[in-house]
Specification:
The structure is a single chain. This protein is an all-alpha fold. The chain has one domain. The protein has helices spanning about 1-5, 10-40, 45-70.
Length: about 70
């Protein structure tokens, strides 16, 4: 328990924000591009593409923020 009390809360928040930003870059770079090829092949409309792409990018940002802010 003493390890948890010695952690700097600001450092945890900063690590979560940085990891969330990395998740956003992965979401926009990797997920958006791979989904674009699926969307073009399947003939989906742009509205459905943006809904699905933003959903997947959002959960990557959340996972990155949680994993980055988790105390070690």
């Amino acid at each position: 328990m003493s390890e948890l009390s010695s952690l700097n809360p600001f450092a945890i928040v900063v690590a979560g924000v940085v990891s969330g930003a990395l998740g956003a870059l992965l979401g926009l770079g990797v997920v958006a591009m791979t989904m674009l090829s699926d969307s073009l092949f399947s003939g989906w409309g742009w509205k459905l593409y943006f809904i699905q792409m933003s959903y997947r990018a959002t959960y990557l940002v959340l996972m990155g923020a949680i994993c980055g802010g988790w105390p070690r």
